[in-house]
Design goal:
Layout: H1 24-56, H2 59-74, H3 80-103, H4 116-123, H5 127-135, E1 144-148, H6 155-166, E2 173-176, H7 185-197, E3 201-202, H8 214-217, E4 223-227, E5 231-233, H9 237-247, E6 253-261, E7 268-272, H10 279-282, E8 291-295, H11 296-299, H12 315-325, E9 329-340, H13 348-361, E10 366-370, E11 377-381, E12 389-395, H14 399-410, E13 417-424, H15 429-439, E14 444-449, H16 455-465, E15 470-474, E16 478-480, H17 485-493, E17 498-506, E18 512-514, E19 518-519, E20 524-525, E21 546-547, E22 555-559, H18 560-565, H19 578-588, E23 592-603, H20 615-637
Parallel strand pairs: 1-2, 1-4, 2-3, 6-9, 12-13, 12-15, 13-14, 17-23
Antiparallel strand pairs: 4-8, 5-9, 6-7, 6-8, 10-11, 15-22, 16-23, 17-18, 17-22, 19-20, 21-23
Length: 658
């Protein structure tokens, strides 16, 4: 697959000037002053971020987190008792709001937590905003051609769609019927009447968008906006497409967020707040969604759809084909279309065929399987070889913990691996007795580390002694669940575009401990932490292979060549954040990081060395966190490309960011 890095457009300066020689000293002084202020602001930001981390790793926070976990275990998130409890609390709160409204003329209180309706008040443009959009003229104003599938649609739906198009705040558009197949006589008559009134509506018919002659579609700088059947457009949809193109002029494929709409009540629910472009998510489900804008020059290069040739708006097949050749895929984090309540998902079999054809076009040797969640897929990549995997496990005492880990690894169905146990200043005789037992196992070697423990340095040393071309960093306090876990990780690690692979880790109480790490402005988070094991997660993210910013080294696999290329672990991080730093370096070098739910392990988190929430450990962690924030602050300020900017990076519940 081609590279899909979003090209960020710079600011366009209309004028430029060079300071006159007489003002050169003043200009240089001004630059020095601004640089000093910027440096000071960065130091202040790191201090604030450190203060936040102190709260996050305080004893009080740990107690509160444990209490929430217990609460979720006693009252499951979707259980009847929990709904009754919160329903009663919500009714009490509404009574309080009613009394307050009648006591004073103050504004209404915000809703409980941060509901979708409260979020919309902050993010959906009002009448004044829409009026302002209509008056804005932008540097680039491409022609937008809307193509919709109106087969089997009612006149009422066609009328509502045309009204929504006419109400768009961007006016340079055309509506063309580019759909094969016959329309009902009533719909055809309605469209003919509409075209007679509005010259922007044309009834040209073609079999497949890519089959249309170039002069019939429009100029190559325009875009075709694909509106799938059962969608309603927000009035600012086309304006936001054009705004995104002005920000990133090289964009050739754009997609948006979505939600559901009840036409009768006007109620909007169930927002689909997507992340940036994620190739692995796209092979699990239709990550781009139902509303696409495709540059016409890109559309002209797309091949016909084979058995799906008539489905001009077969969104999954079209999105896959477009993504294969797009150079710049842009996510617009705004809800610009609404699935009507009678919207129906596309049938699974055509989607399966589309995904299989996608793999064939890219010459990827893999097969399409059903995913863990309904409506999702799993691409099972065939292993081109069976390389030796070096499994590196640092250890100090904790014989029972290490034995459970090693025994579970030895049950793996994949046979080409070695285990390197790195001994670190153990004191118990039982530990060395167990080491002697392990050395009798051909697959196990014991390495010695006699200096003070440094997780990064220990693993870097082990890599020098490793014989494998694939490395797997593993904590001693994990236990393998599924025997094919190595194959499930290796199939991704051997992909040339992938730099690191993480697994799905559980606490002993069968709640999620790790499902990928996401970064934000001064924060790192695992939003699905403590979620019950059987849950699918928001947008099925706990059940599908996907890209993420980082994974933790409790179970992290990568090719040795990638590890060497990025310089291994940074030994400035003695215990914490060295794995996140490694993944950030991997991404900086152009590789992706993949998290798979098909490799599952238990993780007794930090059992060997304890938590970093007290005394010297806490101080050391905060020092390492400050180092990380200083190093990666600019990247974190941009937000996580694989996580919606509208969601908070918090564990437990996913909540909206106001």
């Amino acid at each position: 697959m081609s590279t899909f890095n979003v090209i960020r457009a710079g600011e366009y300066n209309q004028t430029s000037s060079i300071a006159a020689p007489s003002n050169l000293d003043a200009a240089l002084n001004r630059i020095a002053e601004l640089e000093a202020r910027l440096s000071n602001d960065r130091r202040c930001l790191v201090e604030v971020q450190r203060a936040l981390l102190e709260v996050r790793f305080s004893h009080t926070w740990k107690v509160a987190e444990a209490a929430v976990r217990l609460f979720n275990r006693l009252l499951p998130r979707h259980g009847v008792l929990r709904r009754m409890l919160f329903g009663g609390f919500l009714r009490l709160l509404r009574c309080r709001q009613y009394l307050l409204r009648h006591r004073s003329r103050s504004a209404d209180l915000p809703e409980l937590g941060c509901s979708y309706s409260a979020w919309m008040k902050e993010h959906v443009p009002n009448a004044e905003d829409l009026a302002e959009q209509r008056s804005i003229r932008q540097r680039l104003e491409p022609l937008l051609i809307l193509a919709a599938d109106l087969r089997d649609c009612s006149v009422e739906y066609c009328d509502a769609l045309l009204q929504a198009i006419r109400q768009q705040t961007y006016c340079r558009w055309q509506f063309r019927l580019l759909v094969a197949g016959d329309l009902s006589s009533s719909v055809a008559h309605f469209l003919q009447q509409s075209a007679a009134v509005d010259p922007r509506i044309e009834l040209s018919r073609y079999g497949w968008l890519a089959d249309t002659p170039a002069n019939a579609v429009g100029d190559a700088d325009g875009f075709v906006v694909i509106v799938r059947k059962g969608l309603a457009l927000s009035p600012d949809a086309l304006f936001e497409f054009v705004t995104a193109v002005n920000r990133q002029p090289y964009a050739d494929l754009l997609y948006t967020d979505e939600d559901y709409l009840d036409p009768a009540s006007g109620l909007r629910t169930s927002p689909i707040l997507k992340s940036g472009w994620s190739p692995d998510s796209m092979r699990s489900t239709n990550h781009l969604g139902e509303l696409l804008a495709i540059r016409e020059s890109l559309l002209a290069r797309l091949a016909p759809c084979g058995p799906n040739r008539d489905a001009v708006v077969d969104s999954y097949d079209l999105a896959l084909r477009a993504a294969e050749q797009a150079h710049c895929i842009v996510h617009i984090p705004k809800v610009l279309c609404h699935r009507l309540m009678d919207w129906r998902p596309a049938p699974m079999e055509p989607q399966r065929q589309a995904l299989a054809a996608h793999l064939a076009r890219l010459r990827i040797d893999g097969r399409v399987c059903d995913g863990k969640a309904p409506g999702t897929f799993r691409v099972q990549y065939r292993l081109p070889e069976k390389p030796l995997i070096s499994i590196i496990i640092p250890n100090k005492d904790q014989v029972d913990t290490l034995r459970r880990c090693v025994d579970s690894v030895l049950q793996s169905s994949y046979e080409s691996y070695e285990i390197l146990v790195v001994e670190n200043n153990s004191e118990q005789s039982a530990t060395f007795a167990y080491y002697r037992q392990l050395q009798a196992t051909p697959k196990v070697r014991i390495l010695d580390w006699t200096r003070p423990f440094n997780y990064a340095a220990v693993n870097n040393l082990a890599v020098k002694h490793a014989r494998g071309t694939v490395l797997l960093f593993l904590n001693n306090d994990v236990e393998v669940i599924n025997r094919d876990w190595l194959e499930c990780m290796l199939e991704h690690a051997l992909r040339p575009e992938v730099g690191g692979v993480g697994a799905k880790l559980y606490f002993p109480d069968d709640t999620i401990q790790h499902a990928g790490v996401y970064v934000g402005k001064g924060l790192m988070g695992q939003p699905y932490r403590c979620t019950p094991r059987g849950e699918r997660g928001y947008l099925d993210r706990l059940a599908t292979v996907q890209n993420c910013s980082a994974v933790i080294a409790a179970c992290l696999m990568m090719r040795r060549e990638v590890f060497d290329e990025v310089g291994g672990f940074d030994e400035q991080y003695v215990l914490a954040l060295n794995d996140i730093d490694l993944c950030m370096k991997v991404r900086e070098n152009g590789y992706s990081v993949v998290w798979t739910p098909f490799a599952e392990l238990y993780h007794w988190e930090s059992k060997t060395r304890g938590y970093d929430d007290n005394g010297a450990k806490r101080g050391r962690f905060l020092d390492e966190a400050s180092l990380f924030l200083s190093k990666w602050n600019e990247v974190m300020q941009r937000g996580d490309p694989y996580y919606s900017p509208h969601l908070k990076l918090l564990p437990e519940e996913l909540t909206f960011r106001l």
